[in-house]
Design brief:
With 130 residues, the protein is mainly alpha-helical. It is built from four helices and two strands. Strands 1-2 form a two-stranded antiparallel sheet. The longest helix is centred in the middle third of the chain and has 29 residues. The radius of gyration is 14 Å and the shape is globular. It starts with a helix and ends in an 8-residue tail after the last strand.
């Protein structure tokens, strides 16, 4: 079932959201200071490309630098990417078939707003990263 949902997701919104994350990652990687943010954008972009079967868990070793980085990320790119997920999620929830895809978009909003200090793992092992 995950594969079918991922293929439908890829066609309807995954590719466009992935391209948005790649664009944000490339723009953030222009400066040396922005490289960690760009890498986070690429990581979340892959998750946005194929989200079913994966989940996000908090990293225990993330500390104050992740908090400061999340504030900078929110200002630089997070707000726009989260807005893209919200708009796409609402559009997908209009139809009955699109409701699971819309809910998956809403699941991506928190990680698109505050990605640092998070790790993406398969759903069958959500506690393996801890």
């Amino acid at each position: 079932m995950n594969t079918i949902l991922n293929i439908i997701w890829l066609i309807l919104c995954g590719l466009w959201m992935f391209l948005g994350y790649v664009l944000a990652g490339v723009l953030l990687c222009i400066t040396i200071i922005g490289v960690p943010f760009g890498l986070a954008a690429f990581r979340i972009g892959v998750y946005a490309l194929w989200p079913f079967g994966y989940t996000v868990v908090d990293r225990r070793d993330a500390g104050a630098p992740s908090c400061v980085g999340n504030v900078l990320w929110l200002v630089l790119a997070g707000w726009w990417l989260a807005l893209g997920h919200i708009v796409t999620g609402v559009a997908l929830c209009i139809t009955i078939i699109g409701i699971p895809l819309g809910l998956a978009n809403f699941k991506l909003v928190p990680v698109s707003l505050l990605p640092l200090g998070k790790e993406i793992v398969p759903t069958d092992q959500p506690f393996a990263a801890r």
